[in-house]
């Protein structure tokens, strides 16, 4: 397990860079992780991130389809917000575990 410093806070991360403790997450940390992923966060990003945190911290598993049906953003919009690997990037920025559906 590695440590990384985001927004002046040392956090534990997996080898893929996901926080090991979602309770260490802050919006400031999210902004720095997003910068590493080449994403500048907007209010819409945070709506999706908050949805992801709420669902995963309640023990629900997420898919791209789940997020597309959230009412926050459709699937195409999700890909636009988090280009390339939207679920991987969004969960990483949200400070939750990497979904099992992501390789």
UniProtKB/TrEMBL annotation:
PANTHER family: SULFURTRANSFERASE TUSE. It comes from the Bacteria. It is found in: Cytoplasm. The active site is at 102 (cysteine persulfide intermediate). One of its GO terms (molecular function) is sulfur carrier activity. GO terms for cellular component: cytoplasm. The keyword Ligase does not apply. This is TusE/DsrC/DsvC family sulfur relay protein. GO terms for biological process: tRNA wobble position uridine thiolation. Belongs to the DsrC/TusE family. Keywords: Cytoplasm. The lineage of its organism: Bacteria, Pseudomonadati, Bacteroidota, Bacteroidia, Bacteroidales.
């Amino acid at each position: 397990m590695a440590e990384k410093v985001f927004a002046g806070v040392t956090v534990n991360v997996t080898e893929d860079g996901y926080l090991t403790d979602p309770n260490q997450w802050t919006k400031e940390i999210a902004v720095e992780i997003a910068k590493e992923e080449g994403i500048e966060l907007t209010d819409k990003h945070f709506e999706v991130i908050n949805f992801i945190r709420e669902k995963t911290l309640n023990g629900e598993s997420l898919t791209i389809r789940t997020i597309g049906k959230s009412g926050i953003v459709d699937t195409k919009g999700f890909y636009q917000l988090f280009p390339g690997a939207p679920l991987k990037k969004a969960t990483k920025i949200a400070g939750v575990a990497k979904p099992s559906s992501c390789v």
